[in-house]
Structure to design on (173 residues):
């Protein structure tokens, strides 16, 4: 499934989700600009984060120079939730990615493409035994809130999630 996003401040983007266990050969040359982790606890809670308490997302973000996507995931999850992925008894599992095409608004020509990568993290622990503590600096550009939610609650907070290819890939992985 493919969808188009248009932002007045950023432009137009075409996003296509690819369900895969790794980046396909035809996409390997594309840069990964963002990496996100879907964290699901033993009691089926999902971790979401927010900068303002209104707009929620999965923990993740942009890579620092030279970081692999797994290193980006580990750093971002720790900064935004306080969860140290490396100390969990489970390895993050790659379950897919978006190919994001930046589109010229006048001609609909693709001017740049990059990847947004998704991982599944399933700590062998319940939400009651994990503490969420965002570690980032307290400014408006950083995550201030982190919470455990049911899948239904998460779907209510993230408009695109219900029936998305990304959700289906997460559930199947």
């Amino acid at each position: 499934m493919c969808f188009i996003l248009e932002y007045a401040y950023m432009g137009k983007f075409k996003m296509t989700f690819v369900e895969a266990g790794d980046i396909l050969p035809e996409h390997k040359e594309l840069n990964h600009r963002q990496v996100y982790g879907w964290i699901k606890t033993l009691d089926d809670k999902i971790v979401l984060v927010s900068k303002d308490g209104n707009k929620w997302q999965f923990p993740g973000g942009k890579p620092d120079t030279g970081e692999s996507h797994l290193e980006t995931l580990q750093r971002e999850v720790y900064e935004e939730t306080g969860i140290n992925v490396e100390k969990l008894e489970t390895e993050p599992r790659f379950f897919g990615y978006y190919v994001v095409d930046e589109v010229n608004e006048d001609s609909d020509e693709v001017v740049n493409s990059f990847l947004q990568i998704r991982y599944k993290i399933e700590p062998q622990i319940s939400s009651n035994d994990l503490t969420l503590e965002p570690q980032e600096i307290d400014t408006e550009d950083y995550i201030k809130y982190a919470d455990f939610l049911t899948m239904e609650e998460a779907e209510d907070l993230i408009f695109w999630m219900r029936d998305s290819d990304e959700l289906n890939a997460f559930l199947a992985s």
